[in-house]
Fold:
Amino acid sequence: MPKLRFIPQNKEIEVESGINLLKAADQAGLYIEGDCAGKGTCGKCRVKLVEGDAGNPTKAEKKHLSEKELSEGWALSCQKRVKENWTVEVPVQKEAHLRKTTLAGGVENLEGDPAIEKIAVKLSRPAVKDQTADLERLLKHLDRDDLSVELRELSGFPGMLRSNNFSVTAAISGNRIISIEPGDTSDQLFGIAFDIGTTTIMGSLIDLHKAEVIAVAAETNPQNIYGADVISRINHASEGKGNLKQLQDKVIEATNTIIKELLKQTKVARDRVYEIVAVGNTTMSHLFMGVDPTYLAPAPFIPAYSRALELEASELGLDINPAGRVIFLPNIAGYVGSDTLGVILATEMDKRTSKCAAIDIGTNGELVLAANGRLMACSTAAGPAFEGAQIKQGMRASAGAVEAVQYVNDDFEISTIDDAPAKGVCGSGLIDAAAALVDSGLIDATGRIINPEENPDQLPEKFKNRLKRGESGFEFILVPGSDSETGDDIVLSQGDLRELQLAKGAIYAGLKILLKEAEIDEQELDEVLLAGAFGNYVRKESALTIGLLPQLPSEKIVAVGNAAGDGSRMALASKKIRERAFALPDKVEHLELSTRRDFQDIFVDALKFGQ
Ligand code: FES
Structure:
């Protein structure tokens, strides 16, 4: 079996001969960026072979890597089959999820009314005159004769009672005792709220006794090896026996890594975590629960279920108290999941009397409109461009990503995350860069980069050397020769601008259709809420310049952070809010955009830069 050594991570594994290198890295627990599920089209799964023979480059490698890079050992990991011992350098992905993690706690004060109750009791001692069995004695002291108990709790119960002077604590979920613990542990009551994103999974450990978030952790969703978007993952799940289980195992594994990290940070015992409440899009909900999502992909986009699902942690293999409950909040429709429901909960759109829209831009774009007593939602096929996918040098928001571009004093000011040398462009940088190009006059309203050969007079001298020919038209050089690994320019290509237009056009068109349905004009909106990590980092001015948002005064556009995650935290901390969540799908009207005859015209109109 060939041996692989990955540096600088310093991991070694033996793999089956012929295995794909991208899959082998995954087996070693390493994350390699890639958007195309190994099809060779995105060119992002680059690694460098430091020792070993890479063989001849494939067509895809020749397309995405220069001669120089190939001669230096650069390769696309999805194109390589491991047949001999190799040492492979994997570019470090520094905290791709950091931005999302830092958004925890957007809702500062949680309402505390937990669904799990912990009651400490001191039982009377048995005697010849009182031969009540131990369990019945406990139920009598709890004053509840409707409770059932887990067998695993009962097995050691008699000994525990006697060695703890008949003092115990029961953790109760509904009408079940899920845990019996020695002594008084009533103040040790914890739960974890999860936001299962297509790209990032985020967990918040909550002290349910105090209604406080005490730790937050995040992981990249390792399902991304099967594609960056939900459709690729549904296709993978449908394509072969065992594939659904593979996808479920990936997400459960990442969820357990987060749980471990949260418990390590806080020194909370795993058995004192009694509940998990999760939100995610409908596909993520299916894959987390291990339910076949096949019929979500083709019209009419039918999910296997939409209600909330509740399981025992041990059934899913989640490392909390084995009898702990796992609740995935209900979905609204095939492409409007419980994450959108979380946004509605956190922003209280179901209670507002003002006219308000919420836009959650993640790997997909979901929109909600509250107006005239109606609550409406839709999803748009925005694609993952805002997360850096399908963009030539797109990357997630991690160190070295161009995150902000401004056109000031006739020049471009560019900054990267952590001030690291530029390696690529993330979503906020993409929007900023496009807006800066609009401001500078280097692109027109149709999104076309001006041709320096056709229009030499239109182009200021100093920008002449910043435009170069690329595969899909002209490219604007954002940062010359910056890529620390390849020395390449960091560019914004014509193709990138087209991807951005499609994504922003889909979102704006979705909003326009919701407004049309509610019979209100966009100027009547009192507020537009930007949810998601992206919402916090995008500059409103840039979003307005490129026509992603309606032309409203910027104070009406408000970033609300990771509202989906906030929704899951709120539903975990409060039974009342959870009940509100369970009732929400019946109150939200779902609009299916793909069947609307007016969509195409509105969409084409929304593609323009500036409105
Ligand atoms: S080119 Fe390898 S994952 Fe896309």
User: Anything to note?
Assistant: The radius of gyration is 27 Å. Residues 34-36, 38, 40-45, 76, 78 surround FE2/S2 (inorganic) cluster (CB under 6 Å). Residues 3-89 form a domain with the Ubiquitin-like (UB roll) fold (CATH 3.10.20.30). The chain has five domains: 3-89, 116-182, 190-328, 352-383+507-565+575-606, 385-499.
